[in-house]
Amino acid sequence: MSDLEQDAEPPKEEIKYDHRIAQPVEEKLTISHHVTLGDNEAEIFCIRFSADDRYIACGCADGKIKIYNLETNKMAFLLANQVLTEYEIMPITCLRWRPGDHKT
């Protein structure tokens, strides 16, 4: 064995941290599929849940915003610009719900 091989430390186990609380994460998270919303023709660039978790808004590559009702799993609203041509449309890359107390 060469001197380099003898001095080399064994690989250390990587410790994962939850950066919000700066402590090691001991449990494994699982991701599971609960629902498929719509049959989207365009790529989705961003999503945002409403404050009450009843709706999810999806910003799409075709310039449309699709809002789905999570209780019914159906599209509740479609926001689209009807004036622009297909060459003028820009993708939706950021979404934000209007702050405030909404009673809908």
Explain the overall architecture.
This protein has 104 residues and is mainly beta. The chain has a domain at 35-98. Helices cover 5% and strands 26% of the residues. It is built from 1 helix and 6 strands. The protein has one helix at residues 3-7, and strands at residues 17-18, 23-24, 44-49, 55-60, 65-69, 74-79. The relative contact order is 0.16.
Strand content: 25-35%
Overall helicity: under 10%
Question: What's the total number of strands?
Answer: 6
Question: What class would the helix/strand composition place it in?
Answer: mainly beta
> What's the rounded overall pLDDT mean?
78
Instruction: Give the termini separation.
Output: 73 Å
User: What general form does the structure show?
Assistant: elongated
What's a concise summary of this model?
With 104 residues, this protein is mainly beta.
Task: Compile the SSE list and pairings.
Elements lengths: L2 H5 L9 E2 L4 E2 L19 E6 L5 E6 L4 E5 L4 E6 L25
Antiparallel strand pairs: 1-2, 3-4, 4-5, 5-6
